[in-house]
Amino acid sequence: MKRFLVALSVSGALLFGSSLVAFSQDGASLYKACQGCHGAQGEKMAMGVGHPLKGQSAEDLLKKMHGYKDGSYGDGKKAVMENMLKRFDDEQLKALADHIATF
Q: How far is it, in rounded angstroms, from Cα 2 to Cα 23?
């Protein structure tokens, strides 16, 4: 049951996120696709693993995002992040990292 709920949450986030990404360029709007797993202020450990986004620099976040996107960064959950981030272009990733770094 827990796996079903996690899969349902991720699917909803992907679906919701893809519609937001298509029309958004500012970091705050782009982050709405992320907050279901990471929390409104990046305070959550997404899916109970990793580190909260809050407190990380824009440079570190951007490096990790590019790593997820090209498959060079991440652990067992990286497929989720890879699917999320492949919808963002470089400009959107930068805007997103800059926004998250303000938390």
A: 32
What pLDDT is stored for residue 4 in this prediction?
57
- Which amino acid type is present at position 56? Q
CB atoms within 10 A of CB 75: 8
d(CA 96, CA 17): 13
Q: Which amino acid is at 62?
A: L
Helix 78-85 to helix 58-70 angle (10° resolution) is 100
101 vs 103: CA distance, rounded Å: 6
76 CB-side CA count, 13 A = 4
Question: In this predicted model, what pLDDT tens digit does every residue of 63-72 receive, in sequence order?
Answer: 999 999 998 9
Rounded-to-integer distance, Cα 57 and Cα 72, Å: 19
